[in-house]
UniProtKB/TrEMBL annotation:
Signal peptide: none
SUPFAM superfamilies the UniProt entry points to: Actin-like ATPase domain (SSF53067)
InterPro entries referenced in this protein's UniProt entry, alphabetically: ATPase_NBD, GppA/Ppx_hydrolase, Ppx_GppA_N
Gene3D superfamilies listed in its UniProt record: 3.30.420.40, Exopolyphosphatase. Domain 2
Domain Ppx/GppA phosphatase N-terminal, first and last residues per copy: 27-321
Species of origin: Mesorhizobium sanjuanii
GO MF annotation terms: pyrophosphatase activity
Name recorded for this polypeptide: Exopolyphosphatase
Pfam families per record: Ppx-GppA (PF02541)
CDD domains named among the record's database cross-references: ASKHA_NBD_AaPPX-GppA_MtPPX2-like
Coiled coil: none
């Protein structure tokens, strides 16, 4: 049996360090053979200081060393290792990546906002069904939030990213918003102020009306990828522990999303910590994420939200495999 080519994707974000190693399977899909994910909070304190902090950089380097070991243990055909908002905006971001190369043996590239938006879309192709007319896909990150408007009313190509008609990247994510407004104690007033902060930024997005012709259609929906929406979905399903298989691809109607946001806003910090889908790692970030979600829902109201537990890594793998012809050569199995 011919050995399958191995592909790898690493995403160093403002909050998380994540690695996926996978082999192509049937057309457009892949099987994960190794993975790593750790909350490192690389962007901790960045909003205030403009720099990556020493402790945060140390945490990230330790995680990246593990990723480096995993990658070197395999024969990898193609890999892409990216860094996003924290390294993009920090005064010492490039300097930090030099250290990563020295200590972890990994060369990361800082991607621009447009690439980040495209990769978020590329990872979600299989969650957009054939008869869909339009989608607003959003990825609420730690330091930035990407939003892409996708028009599927014409001929559909295999690559979802080809249908992006407008996109934006807001320089606000769960870590930066929580650091500015406070994440532990969030009153209704503070929550409303966070929503308003994001709403003002969305108002300045010129391309926000590019899907106005399909907004009223039942074949339009929102597609959310990020810890915020997967957490909401886990709470909605009342999971005793988070389970990706039940969350990825889940549909939530407007009332369910309203109820979940209302529930979380009503909980204090300890109640959020106590929920198994939130926990101590996300308890001070989840309401900032909900605020970004609420601002997005106000601009593009939809009866349905599809939840994606996937992100830039899946987008990278999809693009690497497609560009390499990994699916073409094997036929549609």
């Amino acid at each position: 049996l011919q050995e399958l080519p191995v592909f790898a994707a690493l995403d160093l974000g403002t909050n998380n360090c994540r690695l996926l190693v996978a082999v192509p399977t049937r057309h457009g899909q892949f099987r994960v053979i190794d993975a790593f994910s750790r909350i490192v909070r690389l962007g901790e304190g960045l909003t205030a200081s403009g720099r990556l902090g020493q402790a945060a950089m140390d945490r990230a380097v330790e995680a990246l060393k593990i990723c480096g070991d995993k990658l070197r243990a395999r024969n990898i055909r193609k890999a892409r290792l990216i860094a996003t908002e924290a390294c993009r905006t920090a005064a010492n971001g490039v300097e930090f990546l030099d250290r990563v190369e020295r200590e972890a043996g990994l060369k990361l590239e800082i991607i621009d906002r447009q690439t980040e938006a495209r990769l978020a879309v590329s990872g979600c192709g299989s969650l957009v069904e054939r008869d869909t007319q339009g989608v607003v896909l959003f990825d609420i990150g730690g330091g930035s939030s990407e939003i892409a408007l996708i028009d599927l009313t014409g001929h559909r190509s295999p690559r979802l990213a080809n249908h992006i008609v407008s996109w934006t990247s807001l320089p606000v994510g769960v870590v930066s918003l929580a650091e500015r407004f406070g994440g532990r104690t969030v009153t209704r007033e503070i929550f409303a102020a966070m929503v308003e902060d994001v709403a003002v930024r969305l108002h300045a997005f010129d391309g926000r009306d590019r899907l106005s012709h399909v907004l009223a259609s039942p074949k339009f929906h929102l597609l959310g990828t990020s810890g915020t929406v997967t957490t909401l979905a886990g709470v909605h399903l009342d999971l005793e522990r988070y389970d990706r298989r039940r969350v990825d691809g889940l549909w939530m109607d407007r009332d369910s999303v309203d109820r979940m946001v209302e529930k979380l806003v009503g909980w204090d910090f300890q109640q959020r910590v106590a929920n198994p889908c939130i926990g101590a790692d996300r308890a001070d970030l989840v309401l900032a994420g909900c605020a970004i979600l609420e601002a997005i829902r106000a601009v593009w109201p939809s009866e349905r939200l599809r939840v994606a537990d996937r992100g830039l890594r899946e987008g990278i793998l999809s693009e690497l495999m497609a560009d390499d012809g990994a699916w073409r050569s094997r036929g549609r199995q």
